[in-house]
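Input (structure):
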């Protein structure tokens, strides 16, 4: 391209990178050559040449899930503010695919790699992830765990979480304050970080309100709409209804549970109160009381933390916890003044 424009290679490089002033006539010749030769800068070659990265990467289970989509939107928004390209990778919930995608992002010289969402945080996972965090740090990149538990004090990874346990405690306390004592929890998954932290808040609220913990009121299932439908259908088919309220592990579960309750002839909130978690579609559409999670702010904070760390290498590992709060709609009925034995 330099030969085509009749200038030196160094001049072309400076004009394309915008790092050096040039005469208007020289710039015109170079940009004409760019158009005529249909030139596109090779990002990998720039990375090998030592240029600073211009991208941030986010890795999620799926881009069609509202939770992941909103966090990814936050990453994209903040990346644009910072003048960075946002690269999105998906794993389908496969741990090995996640680790392979991290390696790919490392090879692409992403300035940071943001991992989002629920995991089985066992010892093997922590060990592998710590190795990748160190490898990314050596390559000049940064691992950010978004909505995930930290890996330990000696691992060079940033963490931005939201208060799962506090949110679950608050929404359970809301039901208890309305007089409910038999609260069905949908979506228990032993070993998975997100449902475990939510059920911890549920149990703590029961204990603080001196309501006995009944393991039979915790139903195992994944965090999908179809699972909410299944869990309620099976529960109601097994015998007489033994709960006055349902705490769905997320809003998708709540939507499925709502359908099953309505098909069984039960009204919300007249017969059964229902709450969720996330405050994403379809919560507002079904008038669901739920816990608001700052999804987009999670993504934005993850990018800001990583780029601030990149600019100041002396900063130690950081851990940010964002707050959650209840959004009250019309899916909970108070039993405080009810006299019917069924509501006691």
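Output (sequence):
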């Amino acid at each position: 391209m330099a030969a085509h424009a009749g200038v030196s290679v160094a001049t072309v490089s400076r004009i394309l990178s915008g790092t050096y002033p040039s005469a208007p006539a020289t710039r015109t010749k170079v940009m004409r050559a760019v158009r005529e030769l249909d030139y596109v800068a090779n990002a990998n070659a720039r990375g090998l040449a030592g240029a600073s990265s211009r991208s941030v990467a986010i890795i999620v289970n799926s881009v069609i899930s509202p939770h992941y989509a909103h966090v990814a939107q936050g990453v994209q928004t903040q990346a644009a503010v910072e003048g960075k390209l946002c690269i999105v990778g998906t794993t389908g919930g496969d741990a090995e695919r996640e680790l392979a995608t991290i390696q790919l992002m490392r090879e692409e010289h992403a300035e940071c790699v943001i991992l989002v969402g629920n995991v089985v945080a066992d010892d093997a996972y922590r060990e592998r992830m710590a190795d990748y965090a160190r490898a990314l740090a050596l390559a000049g990149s940064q691992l950010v765990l978004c909505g995930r538990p930290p890996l330990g004090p000696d691992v060079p990874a940033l963490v931005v979480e939201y208060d799962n346990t506090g949110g679950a405690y608050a929404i359970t306390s809301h039901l208890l304050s309305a007089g409910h004592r038999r609260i069905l929890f949908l979506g228990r998954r032993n070993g998975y970080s997100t449902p475990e932290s939510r059920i911890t808040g549920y149990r703590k609220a029961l204990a603080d309100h001196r309501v006995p913990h009944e393991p039979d009121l915790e139903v195992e299932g994944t965090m999908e709409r179809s699972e909410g439908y299944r869990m309620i259908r099976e529960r109601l088919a097994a015998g007489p209804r033994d709960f006055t309220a349902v705490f769905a592990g997320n809003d998708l579960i709540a939507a499925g549970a709502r359908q099953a309750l309505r098909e069984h002839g039960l009204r919300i909130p007249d017969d059964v109160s229902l709450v969720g978690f996330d405050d994403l579609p379809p919560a507002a559409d079904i008038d669901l009381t739920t816990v608001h999670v700052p999804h987009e702010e999670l993504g934005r904070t993850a990018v800001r933390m990583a780029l601030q760390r990149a600019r100041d290498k002396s900063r130690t590992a950081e851990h940010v916890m964002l707050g959650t709060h209840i959004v009250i709609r019309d899916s909970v009925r108070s039993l405080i003044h009810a006299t019917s034995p069924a509501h006691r």
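Notes: Residues 43-51, 339-344 have pLDDT under 50 and may be disordered. The longest helix spans residues 295-311.
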